[in-house]
Amino acid sequence: MMLNSIYYYLVERVMNMGQRVPVTIISGYLGAGKTTLILHLLKCKEGKRVGIIVNDLAAVNVDEKMIQRSPDFSKADQLVALTHGSIGGQLQQQLIDQTYRLAASGTVDLILVESSGIVQPDMAAKAIARGTTTDGEKLATVCRLDTNVTVVDGFRVLHQFLPGDGAYNQDFTQSNQLIINQIEFCDVLLFNKTDLLTAEQQTYLEKFVRQLQPRAVFLETKFAIVPVSKVINTHLFDEKHELEAYDRSDDLSHFKEHHDLKFGIDSFVYRRRRPFNPMRFDAWLDQWPPAITRCKGVMWVITQPERVFTISQSGRAMDIIPSGYWIASMKDWEIKKIFTVRQNLRQIWDPRFGDRMIELVFIGQNMNRNKIIHDLDQCLMREDEVIDVRQDPFRLRHSNAHSK
Asked: Where are the domains of the chain?
């Protein structure tokens, strides 16, 4: 009973002081340099007491042992290992509880969270920014999500993004989507191992990544050596704009097209108010232009007029997933209610089709934009066309995804 009283006293003290502990989440694919960054930050902590939470899918947390063996990890620092799962999934509640315990203890000045290599960074961010402990305490009362850092292996990603004949390294195929998501959701984008790249390759990589992530602070480094002030207590994270914007990432209405003449890096949005013939579009996917490195957006097919399909492609990996229903397919009273909540809905509402549309952004190098647009237009339904719904390759059977 006495321990509980002391604990809640400390929580109240932290709240009254108005000094919530800053939390930096470090994401990145396997081998990108996340633990190397933490070791560097420990070396440069300047008397700060650091709380560290390390996530590993395996039962044995190798990163935990590396950090514990560091001469810069002192008795004043605290380390929590979350193993045998993902903090974006089954360990998310443990992440919230352990972060709350560290922040409320009054014994750490900052918290570093190292995600496992396969965690979607927005899931970890939501847990820290909006989490509630097992006891019903809001995490935001004792700490604040300060910075989302994504560490990227510059050498690996360069070769992932280079256009070619489509014969991408198979080791990249499964990781493409995850690395793209990690790049698209962050406040600081740390490109590690850039010493392995030429100056021209570094410039190309930055210009290309800027198409995917125009907002984040971009840092190039080797051995993850960066100024501490760039990744800790930056106040860069904005929950209202960042999380809500990511939740609406399929809305491309504000996307700006870019073109770089020197490197041939191009981007454009394909918008149409007619649905695809699913068979012709599926056939076009088999002829996917290798110059397209990234595509995402929403798709409307004639055979499923109520369903929204989300497309997400990077490299040779592509997912086409049913992600909800068009508002126009709802009942009249439901549509009217949504109109009162979503102020921008009128701007995209078509008198005939409502919100149904095809809206896809394409990013790549030396793309033949006119040919891509022409070929996609050939996939659209024609006025006098009749098709058999049973032939739709995107019909749901035993799976919720269509992969090419």
From this structure: 2-247, 259-403
